[in-house]
Amino acid sequence: MNTTLAAPSSKTFKRRGSMRKRDRAPSHLPPVQSQETHDAALHAIRNLLKGRTSYDAFPVSFRLIVLDTKLNVKKALQCLLLNGVVSAPLWNSEKSKFAGMLTVLDIIHLIQYYYDTANYEAAAADVETFRLESIRDIEKSLGVATPPMLAEHPNSTLYKAARVLIQTHARRLPLLDYDTETGHEVIVSVLTQYRLLKFISINCTREIQQLHLSLRKLKIGTYVSSNPPSPNPENPETQNPYYPISTATLDTPVFDVVHMFSERAISAVPIIDQDGVVVNLYETVDVITLVRLGAYQSLDLTISEALNQRSPDFPGVVICTAGDSLGTLLELIKKRRVHRLVVVEGDKGRLLGIITLSDVLRYVIGEVSIGESVEEIATLSAAPGTPLPPDIIRDGA
């Protein structure tokens, strides 16, 4: 499945692997397009988030998977996969204390560690007994940054929670409370970038329709550089024609992409052909699928071979153009679960850039120059913790 944001072109092109063609969604543009209306909408969204708590973004019902740090990695991974999640809070039962998050990137680091230091047999045997509490030691040995131990209270404002996500480059934020009798920490939920942006898309319909400026003009996302660095034989990345975006082809070994995931802390790599046309996207969760099948040695497969083992219910690659609006992107988030978009150009879909939810959240929440006229609009702020008014909607899932 291939979801796009702009109007359909006169030509169609085929995708390889499990991608299926899907009609492009129409762009939602207001009758009057101006910087002032765009800025006013952005200001109103921020005011709403300053008056709403993280608790307000909880869906009507949800489940929370918490893993003990004494659990071995294999059982933890099975638990994640059986419950259809890719991350979970960690709990130190000896200290009755929150101990961080287990994410797909942690598993990626572990895979690279074993590929660097052991053979398949040793890795397969060790993963049976390796405990979650030792994950951070692996990261130190690889020289990758240890994720920060961040958390917020459910009654902290959504705006504050969003700022924490942006400042720490985290994709999710644990929400902790305290037991009134024991004083121990209690993990209430986890606020993700997607959940926060979906809250905005559901409750700011009018404002979203006014976010009409293009993604490229707003500088949302990472784009192929028009002035790449001079080629340096000692630094292969400088020889990348799509710098600074990491790419691969259908013939690239899976482990080469795993190395990109671990070294650059990214979660997806566009798969392109010899002309730079996007043919698929390989994600960290695809690697986990191989591990779930017990195919630790399958990382020597090519991307093309690995994609043949991808689940048939893979939702597809979401693409857009640099001229699509921020409002259109948020409308899409309201309708389906989206974590990133590949920006393409031309009828064939040549790679131009990539947009993550981090990029979107950074723009919506970050410091953006807003004119004085914006200060004159009525704000939507309310005291944190006040009941949800009728026009505030909770997600049903």
Task: Kindly list the characteristics that best describe this protein.
397 residues, three-stranded mixed beta sheet, 13 helices, 31% helix, alpha/beta, 13 strands, six-stranded mixed beta sheet
Secondary-structure topology with pairs:
Layout: E1 2-4, E2 21-24, H1 35-50, E3 67-68, H2 73-82, E4 87-92, E5 97-103, H3 104-117, H4 120-126, H5 135-142, H6 158-168, E6 172-178, E7 185-192, H7 193-203, H8 205-208, E8 222-223, H9 254-264, E9 268-272, E10 278-283, H10 284-292, H11 303-307, E11 317-320, H12 326-335, E12 340-345, E13 350-356, H13 357-365
Parallel strand pairs: 1-2, 1-11, 3-4, 11-12
Antiparallel strand pairs: 4-5, 6-7, 8-13, 9-10, 12-13
Helix pairs in contact: 3-5, 3-9, 3-10, 6-13, 7-12
